[in-house]
Amino acid sequence: MRKSIFHEDWWLDAIAPGSWREVRELRGGHVAGYLRFVARNQLGLRICEMPPITRLLGPVVLSQADRAEARNRFTAAILTELLCHLRDYDHVRMTLDTGFANLTPFLVAGYTIGVQPTFLLDCTRPLDELWSGLRDKTRNVIRRARETLQVREISDVDEFTRFYAANLGGESSYFDLALIAPAITAARAHEQGHILAAVDGSGVVHAAICLVWDNSYLHYFLSSRDRQLAHSGAVSLLLWQAVEIAQARGLCLDFDGGITTDSRFRFAVAFGGELANRYEVSRSSTRYRLLHLPARIPGALIRRIRQFALKFPKALKAALALVAMRPQRRTAESGEPAAPPLARQDAIAASAAPCRSAKIPRQKCNDAVTPAPLPQPTSRNRSPAPEISVIH
After folding, report:
1. Least C-beta-crowded within 10 Å: which of 20, 93, 281, 377?
2. Per-residue b/e over 209-220, b at no fewer than 16 CB within 10 Å?
3. Which backbone phi and psi does 36 adopt, to 5 degrees?
4. CB 270 within 8 A of CB 135
5. Structural domains for the chain
6. What are phi and psi of 17, to 5 degrees?
7. Do residues 76 and 32 lie in contact, with contact meaning Cβ atoms separated by under 8 Å?
């Protein structure tokens, strides 16, 4: 429930000018807690959410109590009052800081809670200790990257934006790239932001990262690399530089979430940080859910079908083959034989053709084409075993 860089007025003014709001709770004439968010309308529905490219933006509670019991009661009361200000919104979503522990008021108010894993690396320790905490392979990758690459700061924000856009590989960005410039420019103006690039001897940029920080955490905010050119250790080299910056400022490095795949987990865990969870809380009205339900169901079904086809391609083919080749069977309700397979129907039709051409009576024709029943082997009609005579 701390105040982060994403709670600052200047940050919100840079990326959500004129659209962010604040609700407050007072105690004794002083601000006891506040909540900032972006408000908008969508098809007549009121939406309360975080601004784009904002990693977290939950309530901030200013408690002065020393005892845990008094502090927890005060925090719960303030959170309950703050959430009451959002009752008229059809959809509310926000991501809380890793230090946010009191989730009970959200559960009582009907919120759904999700988890966003991240890694936190305490960089207040000596640099040698931080270096030894890295995985040995990561240290070797950084050493090799230092042989061909140098780290320099990019002063032109537009250069980073162009580099980021060029490396999307035809994919769409999850946010508006036009927001990078105002956000980083504002962070730099308050001396709370850097853009670092890994450059080779020819001045070609292999990878670049953007860092922002507050009084407690340095955030690994944005990252991009040239997949066709980049050295395998370019991003690791830049992240180690971020560790050095955080250590010099006495901050903790936050890998900024996104640990949703195995590859990202293996990359981040190699730097020796500790796993931590951000909580994503959300609440939606019935009108909002009904409006978004038709758009969600087809996508979910398509994803399930694709996952099954990719995971069990042989099983899917075998199941289709069994359906096409199922034997003749009797229905459970009537006891009548099921329709014969197509090959059997063709054989019956071919054998019945001479009957129709010769105008044989219907009864005789049916008798002619009726297949003879096959003998069923039983224990009664088996041939006796041959006798064996013993010669003395």
Report:
1. 377
2. bbbbbbeebbbb
3. -115, 145
4. yes
5. 5-286 (3.40.630.30)
6. -65, 125
7. no
